[in-house]
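Hi everyone, sorry if this is the wrong subforum. Our group has a chain we'd like a structural model of before ordering constructs, and none of us has done structure prediction before. Sequence below.
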Amino acid sequence: MLQRTAMRFVTALMVVLTIGPMSSAGADGWPQGPGPESNFRRRDAKAPTLWSAVRNENIRWRKTLPETGQSSVVTWVDRIFFTTMQPVTRDATLGQNIVGWCCDADTGETVWKRTVTADHPLQLSGCFSDSSSPSPVTDGSTVVFFNASGSIAAFDFDGNPIWQRFVMPVGRTQPTIVDGTVLFIRQTYLPDDHGHFTHDHADAPVDQWTQVQAIDLQTGADAWKSSCGANMGCVPLLLDRSDGRRVLVVGRGGGHSPPEKPEGVSMIDATDGKTLWTLELPGFMSTMTYSQFGDDVLVFHADKHLWVDAVTGKVKREVSIMENVPVRAHVDGQWVDRRESLDTESVSRAIIQQSNLLVGKYHYFRSYTQPWIGRVNCASGDVEYLQLPVQSMPGVDRARDTWLWDPSGMDPALVQQLLASGRKRNKQLPITQWAFAPNDMLNSQGFRVAGDNRSEGNGWGHHASAIPTVVGDALYVSTMAGTVYVIDWNAEALTESAIKAINDLGVPGQSWNRASITASRGRLYAHTIHEILCIDAPMKTISPHP
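Answer:
Right subforum, don't worry. Here is the predicted structure as tokens:
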């Protein structure tokens, strides 16, 4: 049970880490979910921008997986690490044990794999997370796997166990190594028998709040936990204040009646978890990444983008991202400029959860209600939107790819089927269901592995997005349906010319994905419900490994 406090210790590796950047080997790779600098960015690197899994175009290798999984692929030199769920033998909705994988980065061949057990089943292939969602972390000698059903386990690079703890990292946590410790968001209250986190914990006492936890990388022992609460869906990134202090920003507030109070954001010290300041934001939806531009922390709240003083926690500036905003729209096959105001009354969110990322002076995000990617110029305050097709249908070559812009491009019979099967009798198809084909949620063995039908959606609207990543001048934005937009993040204007490419991770309806794209040694890695893809252009394709 989760209440077990005993840890299984094996000889711990003596690893010396610093609070600064990763070693050269780690910096060249992607040693944790948020990347080597803990911000989902590798601006000093280059990686492919054109590929197609359907056409096997610029795919170095592809590895078929026995089961669904959500973690991003992390790398260290010639090794990659990721997690999947333990294989099932029939259709399933729940799972609790994961498998940690170590594979050869050059070929995809399995080096070793280890099962990490836990006690509390969660919904498989959830559109917000599942047990396999948190990415591993590695320092080049030790790799730590996180099971959101209630377990964390460390192994050496030969797969020998070092320690295991039975605690519950939240499914959307992005574990990060800081000064010899591993930071993650830890859950205390448990899911019900159906793998749901219910609304029953709204008044839970402080000792049951979700918090940032730091554990020792070598032993797994507790180092500290934050003195304030943190929502299970917030994504704090490692930040450096101008006074040299290493900090994190956490958020509170969101769906399912979370108990942590007050709603809003807090800055905490990344070395001891102490709260430095708190900004109350009533009605706050905290499920986003938290970045810093100059001396300002950037926050989306309701229909506003906020600049918050990183030292005092006071709001310095705000701008609407929903009122009279410029949109570069695709209408009847033509690009047009127009201004629109979005509904701020009936919708509590402005951005898709976790879809935001700061790069340079631009804070990118995706609209919650429209098929738009947006950005805020953090220097000028200007807001721009660009319409994107919600899904691509790969053709026999790139010139014959088809893009879906709205339901008019769908099979009419599918539209009627989806309208008839919805929980609400909508007259119009919600944006979440615009697709050439809904995700079938079948694993590589042909079993349906999903506990939430919303995972059939296209990766727009209500769900938790894979966090975008940056490599060089390219912003990679992936959707749950396996479409990946490659955007020139530093484009002078957010128009169609900023779209470098629109790529696929597989056949529409068969390439469900919630993992961020990661990069190492000039390659990209992607993780879908069926496989791991190594993208490397241009080159000869290597035969896949089982």
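For your construct planning: The chain has a mean pLDDT of 93. The longest helix spans residues 412-421.
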